[in-house]
Amino acid sequence: DCDQAIIGYEDSTYQTTHYLLSLGHKRIGLLGSHLRGDIRPDPRLQGYERALNQARVPVVSELLFDGPAFE
Fold first, then answer.
1. How far does CA 20 lie from the centroid of its chain?
2. Which of 17, 43, 52, 70 is least surrounded by CB atoms within 10 angstroms?
């Protein structure tokens, strides 16, 4: 029995971005909500930036799309 599922947002976003980079993609966008949080950085953004930084691909602010939160 399992009553909850926990998703590692940072790691899953890192792995996804890393995979796209391994295919040769360089302009990878990120769609999220509250990416630049006031209290702490969004873990999805941290994983995305970590993968790009490791690949020496610049983070382009125009590829970050910050939309409303979904509940």
1. 12
2. 70
